[in-house]
Design goal:
Layout: E1 3-10, E2 14-21, E3 26-30, H1 35-45, E4 48-53, H2 59-62, H3 65-72, E5 76-79, E6 91-93, E7 98-101, E8 104-110, E9 119-123, E10 128-132, E11 135-136, E12 139-140, H4 148-159, E13 166-169, H5 174-184, H6 189-203, E14 211-212, H7 213-219, H8 228-236, H9 246-260
Parallel strand pairs: 3-4, 4-5, 5-6, 10-13
Antiparallel strand pairs: 1-2, 2-3, 7-8, 8-9, 9-10, 11-12, 13-14
Helix pairs in contact: 1-3, 4-9, 5-6
Length: about 260
Amino acid sequence: MSFTVELLPAFADNYIFLVSDSDLGLAMVVDPGDGDVVIRALKQRDLHLSLILNTHHHSDHVGGNDKLQREYGAPIIGPAKEKNRITGLSRAVNHGDVVTFSTLRGEVIATQGHTAGHISFYFPQIKALFCGDTLFSLGCGKLFEGTAVEMWDSLKLLRALPDDSQVYCAHEYSENNGKFASAIDKNNEALKARVAEITALRKAGKPTIPALLGNEKLCNPFLRADQSDLRRALAKAGVAPEDADAAAVFGTMRQAKDKFGMQKI
């Protein structure tokens, strides 16, 4: 089977992800906030939509569900903890459940923190991690409905995935995230290289997604709250005590990012 993952830009900075099996002419869509964007893409590629995946209930991720379900009859899979907040849900899933599309098998990972029931989907056969608003390139999502401890635990689950995993996050926030990361982790050479790459991509009008998870482990401060070099830098800057536990360090960084500005989610 031949699979492709495409980014469909929507709204100001969202990405909707279209996964297609060109041999069968079938498609799966992840977090379709805008149904019209997806329908246009499907028609242009002569694909039939057979599955809709939702990571969480926010409207910019589920807003196109109804239209797509009416048009194609595709089932909707989403988090069990948010089943009453996503209309038309066909199957509610929990951590450890499996979802299938064509010959692909995806693992459901509980990644609460941004919302109370947020989940991510990991498809090892295509090395694709669809993490919604939990993990961003050089950043992470805001804590709208969860705690710092919950989000830190969620990020550790994602960090444990293989280094060659491709991170398909739902917003183009890399440039601003890079500014914040650089401000608190000034001596990180891998981060400097990633920021330069992001700057070049945005100047060329190209997306910064997907991001390589192995690189995120080196660059993303929100994945490094338990790393001694970052903790020393934060302590020196007066951001967080060096002896604080990792969840507390993470929470302090997330609060600092909230004040840093520009990221809405």
